[in-house]
């Protein structure tokens, strides 16, 4: 069995994949900090590409919706957090109403998508977030030269479109006004975090 096929098998078992990520990323402490800093009391939130819903506990059940393309991951999320709402949706063309949410979060999704797909996802995020609303994106970036573990994880990762911070910035700027950006370390992994706003309606 190749390394990549092993990772695909692990990714197909949500509980095992969550446990592996939890160990490699220091209990998600870096991610939790992003949510606390940038998504505190923002209103109704869409977690686009929510996976197994690891961020759901940070939000009141009536203020959170998690959406993901994977039926297995949505089932796992709903089993863990039965009070929250999770739906199977293609993030590039959801069934949500225009301006339905006050904020959208996208974590670890864009590096699985090529530029065209990523642009479609961000365009959809812009549609479902109200004018003046918030989007917070944090994505894998190339590991620093001395981070050997990070380089190994990226080789095993199923995402083939890890970009530089500037690459993500260019994608976001097509639909949002970037408010701030920061580097975030989560265990052995490096991320770039962006907080942005959908331009207010004229």
TrEMBL record:
Pfam families (alphabetical): Methyltransf_25
Keywords: Methyltransferase, Transferase
Top-level taxon: Bacteria
CDD domains on file: AdoMet_MTases
EC number(s) per entry: 2.1.1.187
Single GO MF annotation: 23S rRNA (guanine(745)-N(1))-methyltransferase activity
Record domain Methyltransferase: where: 45-133
Protein name: 23S rRNA (Guanine(745)-N(1))-methyltransferase
């Amino acid at each position: 069995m190749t390394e990549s096929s092993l990772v695909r098998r692990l990714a197909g078992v949500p509980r095992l994949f969550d446990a592996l990520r939890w160990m490699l990323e220091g209990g998600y402490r870096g991610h939790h900090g992003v949510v606390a800093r940038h998504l505190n009391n923002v209103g109704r939130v869409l977690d686009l590409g929510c996976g197994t819903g690891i961020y759901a506990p940070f939000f009141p059940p009536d203020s959170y919706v998690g959406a993901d393309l994977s039926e297995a991951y949505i089932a796992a999320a709903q089993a863990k957090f039965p009070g929250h709402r999770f739906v199977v949706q293609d993030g590039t063309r959801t069934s949500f109403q225009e301006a339905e949410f006050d904020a959208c979060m996208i974590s670890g999704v864009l590096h699985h998508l090529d530029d065209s797909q990523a642009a479609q996802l961000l365009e959809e995020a812009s549609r479902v977030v109200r004018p003046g609303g918030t989007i917070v994106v944090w994505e894998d970036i190339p590991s620093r030269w001395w981070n050997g573990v990070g380089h190994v994880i990226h080789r095993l990762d199923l995402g083939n479109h890890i970009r530089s911070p500037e690459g993500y910035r260019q994608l976001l700027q097509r639909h949002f006004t970037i408010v701030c950006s920061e580097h975030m370390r989560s265990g052995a992994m490096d991320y770039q975090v962006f907080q942005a706003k959908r331009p207010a309606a004229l």
